Amino acid sequence: MNNVVSDPYALYRMQIGAWVKERMKRTPNVLQIPAKGLDIFVARDLLTRDECEQVMALIDKDRVPSGLLSPSGDPEFRTSESCHLRMTDRVNIVVQDKINHLTGIQPAHGETIQGQRYAPGQQFKPHNDYFHPNTDYWESMQRSGGQRTWTAMVFLNDVEAGGQTWFPDANVRVTPRQGNLLLWNNMDEYGQPNPYSLHSGMPVEAGVKYVITKWYRERPWTPVPA
Ligand SMILES: O=C(O)CCC(=O)C(=O)O
Ligand SMILES: [Fe+2]
Q1: For the segment 211-223, what is each residue's pLDDT rounded down to a tens digit?
Q2: Residue 2 domain-assigned (yes or no)
Q3: What are the φ and ψ backbone dihedral angles of 196, each rounded to 5 degrees?
Q4: In this protein, which residues make up the domain named Fe2OG dioxygenase (predicted)?
Q5: In what order do the strands lie in the sheet with 165-167?
Q6: Is residue 212 part of a domain?
Q7: What is the CATH number of the domain that holds 62?
Q8: What is the distance in A from the centroid of ligand 2 to the CA of 165?
């Protein structure tokens, strides 16, 4: 039952979807990607080469095997490495501020940026970034800021082969380009989970792929211990 009683933040999710979309359409250097059923944009050269290199070095220092909110029976489901980027490193603050400034979403709603690294053969199979009700993690996600709305992702390097971000149902495949940001709405125009936002990090075939991810919530993000 999705009504104002059981789901009081649906209106916020609708509004932030429409508002960010309009903002992106008016932003120089931002392109809307033609997609089926999905609002998705690229901002070219959001980060400088130097910023990308600094963040890649920090990811290399802290990376550990990536986790999943729900256990998957498939050991190949998400094989990359990840880390939380520390706000004690100046470059991470600069980068996060750039992303917040571009999207215009209240900074408090953003989870802190994370780094992801994929070696050859590594991937993240098709998944949704939004949270699914009736899961073990749902209650704890409600306590930490609720549903995810927009996802921002920055490619930190060009990849020799493979590693595209693929939205199979929206019919979009994006090739990693250093410094470019990809931004998509995980909710539909009614503020409900949008199945067209299904996406994967395709296997890297040659070289290594580094990205930053940042997820925005429907309420201020308040990390809670697991
Ligand atoms: O690496 C990619 O291209 C996608 C990453 C992703 O979907 C995620 O971290 O949630
Ligand atoms: Fe994702």
Answers
A1: 999 999 999 999 8
A2: no
A3: -70, -10
A4: 109-218
A5: 124-127, 199-201, 165-167, 172-174
A6: yes
A7: 2.60.120.620
A8: 9
